[in-house]
Amino acid sequence: xxxxxxxxxxxxxxxxxxxxxxxxxxxxxxxxxxxxxxxxxxxxxxxxxxxxxxxxxxxxxxxxxxxxxxxxxxxxxxxxxxxxxxxxxxxxxxxxxxxxxxxxxxxxxxxxxxxxxxxxxxxxxxxxxxxxxxxxxxxxxxxxxxxxxxxxxxxxxxxxxxxxxxxxxxxxxxxxxxxxxxxxxxxxxxxxxxxxxxxxxxxxxxxxxxxxxxxxxxxxxxxxxxxxxxxxxxxxxxxxxxxxxxxxxxxxxxxxxxxxxxxxxxxxxxxxxxxxxxxxxxxxxxxxxxxxxxxxxxxxxxxxxxxxxxxxxxxxxxxxxxxxxxxxxxxxxxxxxxxxxxxxxxxxxxxxxxxxxxxxxxxxxxxxxxxxxxxxxxxxxxxxxxxxxxxxxxxxxxxxxxxxxxxxxxxxxxxxxxxxxxxxxxxxxxxxxxxxxxxxxx
Length: 442
Description:
This protein has 4 helices and 30 strands. By secondary structure, it is mostly beta strands. Strands 1-27-26-25-24 form a 5-stranded antiparallel beta sheet, with no helix packed on it. Strands 7, 8, 9, 10 and 11 form a 5-stranded antiparallel beta sheet that branches. Helix 1 (102-113) packs across helix 2. The protein is globular, with a radius of gyration of 21 Å.
């Protein structure tokens, strides 16, 4: 698996230490001498890989965990001490995620038409093929019930032991944060539209205890709230904890700052939404641990939307790509954008290679690797290293664009993390895991 690979030439100040042929990554998380990779799809039933990266030139695969069923994927993994949490979420298919919309839609069409709707009429409204409707109806009769998260004992990294599978609701859990005491879970729950935050006490990992919930006003349908948006456009992607605050990326709802000094009573203390006019949703939001230029600073990164064809990608020409934002959060009642950082399509030979994406996706969390350096996974733009020492003028100080995985039109750098040595770990959405080193004088 650790086959020799020539280093790509599309780099600046970044060298490749090693390459590992590994199934596509949803999340890469490094803790000490171990790397934990959550896999983006249920290909071959694989959920999580654990690697020993103590020798970065020769990473070793220690363990691989199965998803455990055919209808889920488990593409996120986080670790605190000897406890690892992975998500369980419904597969991202047109069929798997339409069944919960079917009863309401069928009722609306029956009322409008005065008869039962045909398969074609249902398909047109759901955005699937007419031939897919029997499969959607089958899912309706046997709804998804595996959503949630699994907790593992990884004291022996080569032999992880499942402690519990805690089930939540609906489509299940997406990305999340955790520490030694709490897991900050982004999940669907009964009575809400879209993902909300559910915080669990995990000090007894065998019995996670829900301690609080937080959501965007309008999500709690069972509580009488009415959203001002359509569908799941405004929802929690996930939060990042910094001190007594959670920083929440809320998709087309922008960003929020949540006070959790009392973990049982989270409350919103700041918010900012730049949708519209910017079209790409807010993925991750994070506060910096110290001030810059006398200001409290936070950074956000958007996720580039997916274009399924070259024709669809062509229609988007001229539209802003997902980018990195820098905010002044000194006054939480008046959050101000200071700058954005974008990457030109001219900076990658694969910027228009369908069905891949070109634009931002994710940065390293909790400022691992440097006080002002943001390591950003930029899909077909590879890795971009951005210095925000001057928060009003972000500067790109390095980049690395890997070669495309075999049989793919472009690279899809999906997630990145940095260890205490300053080494960078970059996962590709299709295939590939690179360990990299940055030097301003490389």
